[in-house]
């Protein structure tokens, strides 16, 4: 950020020269005298006047034009006029930077323009903003004449986002609280960047640019220019990827006086610190989003915290309102197994939980296919599973006990109620995994696998209050499985006429998450698995696939990988 300055005293030498290119020399008169640049001259001493166009946003346009005029350039503002060179403002360097791709290729190789032009008239001998300095340690002479090569390298932002940068982490990664950390491909990032509300947001996120000082408006239109005492509670998400990064509980009081948003801390594990190269003139620690790998701002240690560009964030208020100009959402939780271990009583986690509750979708299915200990244990490892409860369903007796069900006279099956987020775990994927977990063709005339009565029979119950299309999805999954296996399925399925409170009865507490509480399972890392990983571990048949065909499997996995 431009708020970090290095103080450098006045240059002690009388004058020095800047070699711009072969054939051109610009003489600089240091700060003890006038602050003017002499015009450009060619090899024969003839004065040259190059036409220059300024592109993009310039913080002080009048000063930039005055500087270029003094340097011997004519600034062209008419769109129809031709120019030889184009310059843009570089927030990272605080100077005008030559834009080669928009500058004309001249026949005369001796005619060129400087790649960097400082605008601060009182300090042309040394540029001190942003931690830049072009003097040696005792300030007695320039390291080089504005060290153009070093400045050019320094001003070129090196993106960390995109597939090329994430080759080493192609597998999905989850944060410690259960959110996706990508990686996102370059195509995904660019697609979301095109949908952003603000051009500045794209430039900062993708190109490492900086918000103008004092501009504290988020990508979706929330303004934080005032005192933090008047700020509504909420969370800040990355405008690309929607990963939650900060909350208002982390806002620093210095936000009111700083030119940018300041935070004392971040959501754990959701941002990355990029250490500067040892030889770099800019020794700030860059901050990027851990999921998208896009630029956010800089970190200045525990005392000063984070200095973040508002344009890279979307604000999600804890109390829903319409004061923002753009719709935004927070990335849904992928692993509720991990989220449920978090202390949501802390201010920041409580805000995050509140914001998630507004957008969380929840579908429910009741599934049975054997001992409910094993069914619950396996299905809880799928992404997007919010909650599970082992219980009894499909029988005629209200609120049965385990002993009554085992006697075989209740008609109840051992089942598991699955509450899941369809934004992460599609209903079709869940049903496909369930059908792969057991043999849906197995049926016996009597006993635990008996059709219609056995406690281990294959069954699916759809609560009445779920989405209507869920019925069609279940039927399509059953049809595909039967076609794949070439056998009739024994799986019975029913749409229940009431909510689950009248036909699903929770099992005794000793049966809930039984295998997770066993001594063997406690010692294992029961991480959330991608569906394909899950099938490799829990699929009973070697030909177990999602969607009933290899083509559907590929589509389902691609979508799941994007979400996770």
Task: Give a structural overview.
There is one protein chain. Residues 1-43, 122-154 and 547-564 have low confidence and may be disordered. The chain is elongated and about 100 Å long. The protein is an alpha+beta fold and 564 residues long. It has 15 helices and 23 strands. The protein starts with 15 loop residues before the first strand and ends with a helix. The strands form six sheets. Strands 22-21-18-20-19-23 form a six-stranded mixed β-sheet, covered by helices on one side. β3 and β4 (47-48) form a beta hairpin.
Furnish the topology, listing elements before pairings.
Elements: E1 16-21, E2 24-28, E3 40-41, E4 47-48, E5 50-55, H1 61-70, E6 73-75, E7 85-90, E8 95-98, E9 116-118, H2 148-155, H3 186-194, H4 199-207, E10 234-238, E11 244-247, E12 261-263, E13 271-274, E14 285-289, E15 295-299, H5 301-304, E16 306-308, E17 313-317, H6 336-339, H7 347-359, E18 363-368, H8 372-379, E19 385-393, H9 402-407, E20 413-420, H10 427-437, E21 459-462, H11 469-485, E22 492-495, E23 504-506, H12 514-517, H13 519-522, H14 531-538, H15 550-563
Parallel strand pairs: 5-6, 5-7, 21-22
Antiparallel strand pairs: 1-2, 3-4, 7-8, 8-9, 10-11, 10-17, 12-16, 13-14, 14-15, 15-16, 18-20, 18-21, 19-20, 19-23
Helix pairs in contact: 10-11, 10-14
